[in-house]
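Long-time lurker. I teach an intro course on protein structure, and each term I like to show students one example going from raw sequence to a predicted 3D structure in C-alpha cell notation. This year I'd like something fresh instead of my usual example. Would anyone be willing to generate the C-alpha cells for the chain below so I can use it in lecture? Attribution to the forum is fine with me.
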Amino acid sequence: MRRRLIQLPVAASVLGLALTVAAPAAAEARTPQTAAAVTVHLTVTGPDGAVYDKDLKTTGHTVSAATGGEHKCDGTNNGANSSAGATPTAALDDAAQAADFTWDGTWYASYEDYFVTTIDGDAQTADAYWNISVNGEATSVGGCQHKLSAGDDVAFTWTAM
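-- Reply from a regular --
Happy to contribute to a lecture. Here you go:
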C-alpha cells in the first residue's frame, strides 16, 4: 500500500510537468503566425510598358482588390503552406498603394485566391491576360498561395495568348 502512495504523487508530478510543457506548444499552434517582411523585386509590365519596377518590402496580408473585396493573401490560402509569408498578390497590392495604381481580380472562394484581371486600367481580354511569374517561371498556384522568399523576382506581365 505504501508503494502506491509514492507512485501516485510521482505520476501526478510527471503528468503535471508534461501538461505544463505541452500547453504552451498547443497554444502556439493555434495562434496565427505573423509573416516576416521580405524584400523582393516586383515588375509590373502592361501593354504600354512598365507600370512598376522596384524592390519592395512586403508581407502576406489581407489585400483589397478594386471590386473583388478584401481577403487574406498570405501563402496559407487553400492550405498551400503551413506558415504565412509574402505572396505575389500581396506584393502587387503593396506596390499599387505605394505607386497609386489600381488592380482588380475575381475572388474564387474554392481556391481562396484571386485571378488578377486588371492592373492600372488594363483589363484582360480574349487575347491577353496578366501572367504571374516568380524567378522567371509561371507560378503553379495562385498569387495568394505562392509563398515568396527574400530576393525573389516577381513579375506581373501582360501576356498575349
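Some talking points for your students: The helical segments are 2-30, 88-99. Confidence is low (pLDDT under 50) at residues 1-32.
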